[in-house]
User: Which sequence fits this backbone?
């Protein structure tokens, strides 16, 4: 069974940083992109960042470009999201996403497995 377990969420003030981690287990076969999505209650889950299986292709949403950094460690089977200069509008539940085999992780439709979600709250 594939599981993606997130950690690192919490409460911070605007301008502060958090690092989210996602550890994936039970995943075998195929190369998969990984990424992060976030969701505010009552709104659609939205793309935040993605990284290809080899780390060579990285994309961010416009809202986080320049502030967030995604990385992955294939040996540890982990994907990380460093979130700097957090803003109140970044408050959401963040979900680790494991993409479909050999496919670009460009939307929720491209996700095979989700993490349980990690709350990020940015408030003064």
Assistant:
């Amino acid at each position: 069974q594939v599981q993606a377990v997130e950690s690192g969420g919490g409460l911070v003030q605007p301008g502060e940083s958090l690092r989210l981690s996602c550890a994936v287990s039970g995943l075998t076969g195929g190369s998969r992109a990984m990424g992060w999505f976030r969701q505010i209650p009552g709104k659609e889950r939205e793309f935040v960042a993605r990284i290809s299986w080899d780390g060579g292709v990285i994309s961010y949403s416009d809202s986080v470009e320049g502030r967030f950094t995604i990385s992955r460690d294939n040996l540890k089977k982990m994907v990380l999201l460093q979130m700097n200069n957090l803003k109140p509008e970044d408050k959401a539940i963040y979900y680790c996403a494991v993409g479909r085999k050999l496919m670009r992780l460009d939307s929720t439709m491209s996700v095979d497995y989700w993490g349980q979600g990690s709350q990020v709250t940015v408030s003064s």
Summary: The chain has a mean pLDDT of 94. The longest strand covers residues 92-101.
